[in-house]
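Operator note (shift B, R.M.): manual run for RING-type E3 ubiquitin transferase requested after the automated queue skipped it. Running by hand, logging everything below so the morning shift can see what happened. Input copied straight from the record, untouched. If output looks odd, do not overwrite the archive copy; leave it for review.
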Amino acid sequence: TDISIQMAGFSDDRSNETSQKRRRTWASANKSSGDTEGKNKRTATLMDLDVLDCSICFDTLTVPIFQCDNGHVACSTCCKKLKRKCATCSLPTKSRNRAMERVLELLKVPCENAEFGCSESISYAEMSTHVERCAFTQRPCPFSGCGFTGSYEGLVEHSVSKHTRSLYMFECGEPVFMYPKVGERVVLKEKNTGEGGGGRELVVVECFETPQGRIFSASCVGPPMGFMKFPYSFKFISSVGDKLCFESSAKSVREVSGEPPSEHFMFVPSYMFPDYKLRICINRKFTLGSYTTTTS
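Run finished. Output pasted below as returned.
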């Protein structure tokens, strides 16, 4: 990918180092005297953004970046998984690569959703975070067998227009009873209340079979919002009256993976099946600074 980027303090013209040093000295002198006209941004072209990916997991490098004594770099996630041992030469990976971190902070690239309408340019180090929150990020329909993909707003409209009969409607604080089958998804949409911006949330409940019982989990399909969360509670009732209760918060996801979760789930032992009732109650929790309020 040929992407033109703005990088303060970098130049692709290396033919005359003396001239460059003089220009930098002149700009520095102007800055110290209060003249900011000399502080001009210069541009460079990075021919392949893949050089900024982790060589182990191939995801975008994010700060902090670590390296071994031979200069092999890795993202912090891979460093932890490999117990800070270089995957290339086996030397300890303990040193921070400050220069590469600075490059990532200075790189400005268009959002990968530009073709869908996003006009923002983001620091390359923050691209992954931005894409997760971007309203134009393409999200697949959570209904099994549906091939629709669109923005979050488009996904909500699609779910209402094409899957109305399959949608479970919910109101915050009100219980909804369901009977999820193994391997299938139950999709819930908040009713349009006209208050607090509600009515756009999609919550997906999944059920997975294990040798010892079944796993139930809930997730919210949509961009994460730091100030708003969706705590929920499960109540499982067997045919003989045994009950299990579980509380958690629905994690915001780009798409439903269809894989059993490793955390934040309710486990129900086999003896409580096959006949049962499952109740879910979803709330909306706002956090602004030290102030927290829950809508129910």
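Quick read of the result: The CA atoms of residues 217 and 263 lie 9 Å apart. The longest strand covers residues 202-210.
Leaving this for review. - R.M.
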